[in-house]
Amino acid sequence: MRLVLDDGEGQQICTTAEALVIAREKGLDLVEISPKAKPPVCKVIDYKKFLYEQKKKQKELKSKASKVVIKEIRYGPHTEDHDFNFKLKHAQKFLEEGSKLKAYVFFRGRTIVYKEQGEILLLKLAQALEDVGVVESMPKLEGKRMIMFIAPKKKK
């Protein structure tokens, strides 16, 4: 096996028994780093400290990951201009905060025959929000809903 020493003394190739003796002399642990390498790589380190640093790295990566928040806005196929503008202001606010927007038109009962009106409404919304958001998916009908996703524009 290839033995890497923790204190930067370099590497050496030795048997498992020799590596264990070296680790015990230093009062540290022998940890297998890369078992599939030819020869396998082991390191003489303090195992508890190694685990602590691994957890710390994982936590740091997790904190840097951004969480995606999705806000929803619901319209009907016969939504009037005033209601549309009212919800448009909310949509702009959501996108400026950095949230994704899920806008959908809900068709009740026989209003499903007005699919074109629902699509026009969502495209009108996308056009009104083009300065703060980017259309992620065009309007598509799923059951009784026509759904469209809008993501916030990246800030420069």
How is this structure best summarized?
It contains four helices and eight strands, in the order ββαββαβαβαββ. The chain is α/β, with parallel strands linked by helices and 156 residues long.
Describe this protein's structure.
This protein is rod-shaped. It contains four helices and eight strands, in the order ββαββαβαβαββ. It folds into two domains: 2-62, Ubiquitin-like (UB roll); 70-152, Translation Initiation Factor IF3 (2-Layer Sandwich). The chain is of the alpha/beta class and 156 residues long. It starts with a strand and ends with a strand. It is 38% helix and 31% strand.
Give me some keywords for this one.
156 residues, alpha/beta, Ubiquitin-like (UB roll), Translation Initiation Factor IF3, 4-stranded mixed β-sheet, 31% strand, rod-shaped
CATH architecture of the largest domain: 2-Layer Sandwich
Any idea of the CATH topology of the largest domain? Translation Initiation Factor IF3
Query: Main β-sheet: number of strands, strand sense, barrel status?
Result: 4 strands, mixed
Count of DSSP H/I helices: 4
Mean pLDDT: 88
Give a count of the beta strands, DSSP E runs of length 2 or more: 8
Rounded to an integer, what's the Rg over CA atoms? Answer: 29 Å
Given this structure, which CATH class of the largest domain is correct? Alpha Beta
Please tell me what the overall shape is: rod-shaped
CATH superfamily of the largest domain: Translation initiation factor 3 (IF-3), C-terminal domain
Number of domains: 2
Strand order of the biggest β-sheet: 2-1-4-3
**Termini distance?**
51 Å
Strand content: 25-35%
Low-confidence stretches: none
Structural class: alpha/beta
Helix content: 25-40%
The helix/strand order is EEHEEHEHEHEE
